[in-house]
Automatic annotation (TrEMBL):
PROSITE patterns: DEATH_DOMAIN. Its main location: cytoplasm. This is Tumor necrosis factor receptor type 1-associated DEATH domain protein. GO terms for cellular component: cytoskeleton; nucleus; tumor necrosis factor receptor superfamily complex. It comes from Latimeria chalumnae (Coelacanth). Pfam families: Death, TRADD_N. One of its GO terms (biological process) is extrinsic apoptotic signaling pathway. The lineage of its organism: Eukaryota, Metazoa, Chordata, Craniata, Vertebrata. The gene is TRADD.
Amino acid sequence: VLKMADSSDCVGCAFLFLKSTSTQVDLPSHYKDLQTRPKMFGAIKDMLADVVGDSPGYEILKILSSDPQLVVQVKFNEVEKCRQFLRIYKSGTLQQLLQERLRAALLLSELEVQTELKASSSRLDDYLEKEDHCLSCISEEKPDHQKDEDISRLEECLKNLTVESGKPITLIQSECFPVTPGNTGGDVPQEGSTTPSQFVYLYNHMPCVYFDRPLTAKDHQAFATLVGRSWKKVGRSLAKDCRALRDPTIENIAFEFEREGLYEQAYQLIQKFKQAEGKKATLGRLIEALQDSKLQSLADELMNPQEQNGGCI
């Protein structure tokens, strides 16, 4: 039996997955845009306030992109707040409020959002009739990190907006995320830092955070060993954003290295990709191409957290 927790305690965490049902609305892309990110964060925070009241009792730790979904990590400090969240989620009211808030934030005439709730490797949507079981799953999901700096910055931004309600929101946004040369959206710039971008990968149905990085020799060899006849399909996916791989490059590789076999053809594909893109030939881009090519098992093989130092949260 779960006991009432003090506000300073942590009951546990839940992950709220959000996805637009329309292919025309990409929530992760909107969130990466520095102009719309504060609005979307405000919409999600206001939805939580509508559902379970103002904090304390809960807080948003992270909002992550897992294309085509946004993943909101919510930490609960009070059991009753957690129970209330589960009940309103079960009723469908949370989904309705979220749609209304995000639709207004993104200035859309229509928006339908699919939601999914997970904790401790369980899809809680399947157990909403068993509230105590859901609470138990959430209590097993203890965070190993503090609130993300991006979230703290957005919260401060909203405070400024509240205090200075007459100030244009574009000024508030530029104060939250200063626009610098080369910064066109996506990752929040850190002053004096060259920290690589992060991306989220669902490994065994759990969101894992990875720092993107250039492909290594080990990645290169693993891909060439495992991809088999599907290397051309992956190459065509990479070619969407890599001019050097566009026709007739892939067919030329196939013809030139036909005698050497599939391993060498796949190896030469990635070699060409790395030569053309340099440091921009990253693990994240290869994983995206594998998923686009329906090669999920190979993506899982390359993205093993123990191999890639990923952090599942």
